[in-house]
Amino acid sequence: MLVNIDDANGVRTVTLNRPEALNAFNEALYDATTIALRDADADPSVGVILLTGTGRAFSAGNDLVEMQARITDPDFQSGEYGFPGLIDTLTDLRKPLLLAVNGLGVGIGATILGYGDLVFMSSTARLKCPFTSLGVAPEAASSYLLPQLIGRQNAAWILMSSEWVDAQEAKEMGLAWRVCEPDDLLPEARKYAEVLASRPIPSLMAVKHTIVEPTRGEIAAAAKREYAQFEVLLGSAANADALAAFADRKD
């Protein structure tokens, strides 16, 4: 299973389960995660959604092998939902989303934090937005969400530098709410998730709606701008060189 599901005390834990690829998102994982989040949002027994990863990574971001295939393979098949479907689902979630970042978070594995209502990070976790090192544009509406969340200068550094940010730096910036020792990460995240899940679900959803609704139009507009820039840059000389270098390292 690409995604594991566990229910307890009104909390649905969705665990990315592609550890051999550091939970990198290929089309199949995008689809499986989208379906899992939509199902949790629609299930009346679920009050809170907790997303985490298996193994030493939260998610290594987009599967770069598939990214290269998207450019070079005329028969490449996109998933039913793909990346856009996941972003639309994250934007439209009505229930609280908690993230437990258990390890490396790269690309969408970092920008997804912008959609978290509460973010917990392992003390050994690190984040990177490698867009400039790949010669592409930001994604997941991060060009809007990160400045809103952590300020323009912190967002500019993360999005422009392609450098690592450790858990403590993420907390100081406001990307993470709690930093936990690795063995304490899931118990701590579940403890807080269960507190929220003990509250009336319609009230939880009302609070989230009033917080998120004013930003949904801005998120959609940012995503549209990013898609346009990504389309221009995908397959450019810088992007092709970066993907070729990655492929060489894999061989």
Topology (elements, then pairings):
Elements: E1 3-8, E2 11-16, H1 27-42, E3 48-53, E4 57-59, H2 64-72, H3 82-92, E5 97-101, E6 104-106, H4 108-111, E7 118-122, E8 126-128, H5 142-150, H6 152-161, E9 165-166, H7 167-173, E10 178-180, H8 185-197, H9 201-233, H10 237-250
Parallel strand pairs: 2-3, 3-5, 4-6, 5-7, 6-8, 7-10
Antiparallel strand pairs: 1-2, 8-9
Helix pairs in contact: 1-3, 2-10, 5-6, 5-9
CATH architecture verdict: Alpha-Beta Complex
Structural class: alpha/beta
The general outline is: globular
Helix content: 40-55%
Mean pLDDT: 94
- Return Rg in Å: 17 Å
CATH class: Alpha Beta
CATH topology: 2-enoyl-CoA Hydratase, Chain A, domain 1
**Termini separation:** 26 Å
Number of strands: 10
Query: Total helix count?
Result: 10
Strand content: 15-25%
CATH superfamily: 2-enoyl-CoA Hydratase, Chain A, domain 1
Counting structural domains, the number is: 1
Biggest sheet layout: 6 strands, mixed
SSE string: EEHEEHHEEHEEHHEHEHHH
Strand order of the largest sheet: 1-2-3-5-7-10
Poorly predicted segments = none
Commentary on this structure:
It is globular, with a radius of gyration of 17 Å. Helix content is 50%, strand content 17%. The protein has helices at residues 27-42, 64-72, 82-92, 108-111, 142-150, 152-161, 167-173, 185-197, 201-233, 237-250, and strands spanning 3-8, 11-16, 48-53, 57-59, 97-101, 104-106, 118-122, 126-128, 165-166, 178-180. It has one domain: 2-enoyl-CoA Hydratase, Chain A, domain 1. It comes from Mycolicibacterium arenosum. Keywords: Isomerase, Peroxisome. This is Enoyl-CoA hydratase/isomerase family protein.
